[in-house]
Amino acid sequence: MKQAYESIAWQEDHLVILDQTQLPLREIYSDVNTVGQVWDAIKKLKIRGAPAIGIAAAYGLYLGVRDLKSKNFTSFNVELNRWIEYLKSSRPTAVNLSWALERVNQTVYANKDKDLEEIKEIILKTAETIHSEDKRVCRKIGQNGAKLVKKGSNILTHCNTGGLATGAYGTAFSVLLHANDDDKDIHVWVDETRPLLQGARLTTWELQKAEIPFHLITDSMAGSLMNTGKVDIVVVGADRVTANGDTANKIGTYSLAVLAKENNIPFYVALPLSSFDLETDTGEEIEIEEREPEEITHLNKTQITPKKTKAYNPAFDITPNKYITGFITEKGIVEPNFKKNIKKLFD
Ligand code: MRU
After folding, report:
1. Using a 6 Å cutoff on CB, does residue 193 contact ligand 1?
2. Whether residues 105 and 27 fall in one domain
3. Domain count within the chain
4. Quick check: CB of 198 below 6 Å from ligand 1?
5. What is the pLDDT of residues 114-152, one digit of tens each?
6. What does the CA dihedral 241, 38, 18, 200 come to, rounded to 10 degrees?
């Protein structure tokens, strides 16, 4: 299985990103040369999706420190931690961002006695490792998840969880790719995913490239489709899953999960281990990013509401664990009892 595009690529001395705000109308690859540009690309969703922002942030950290002229490790470390906090501030909900930055930080600490130029190279190498590991992990998630998909299934998915949102293949999207590759004759219902239309703009783009049959629907249609027997399984991604299995994902995921339970439809969350946050006990403690109201009141910069309309725009919601059938990970399927079984993944 080969993917024809990469959302993030390291080329010699800089990052190249596929600008996801321009898709599907324009496929624009932009050079990213500074840590400030990485922060901006994450904030503006040019790079988006939990694993992808973690990967980008790790490269961003290298871009932040590579020209530092620190005299010793202590002063280098102060600067490094300043960039870590800065990058973390770009988006609060997806745990992969802090996970990747902390992983680089720990690697730096383990090598603190080395020459500073050598430490900088170790930072770049760690970013590259996080990137290549994610590709491998996502392939495995797809292989594991495809086993849950019965022949002829109608699969409903939300937001975008594909190669655009990860190192390659995706999470929930990788399940679609692998089920399709296994000749399962799948058909996908794609939620458009208001307000930024990651489903309508990005998942459709990736499904077309993979030649997987699909129909786009508006978010509010999902319940009726479930109630009339048109959905066999729901598979979504995650931005952060807490120790008890509560799941933060794109706004609208919670409604899908409740509707799936009401209609006896299995509801799976596909994610890498890097999206679990065992330090947080329950979903109530997760910070939900609130974005600009203009994302709702405007479409393509044109206002679609009366002037001065106030809009509330949380970008994610929390699905309590009781609505989740299981988690699809690179280490296999996690079934209830989640608290115990999620912990086992890390033993
Ligand atoms: O705001 P976004 O587009 O970054 O939100 C993305 C999602 O909610 C995805 O479902 C999640 O990050 C998993 S991507 C593999």
Report:
1. no
2. yes
3. 2
4. yes
5. 999 999 999 999 999 999 999 999 999 999 999 999 999
6. 50
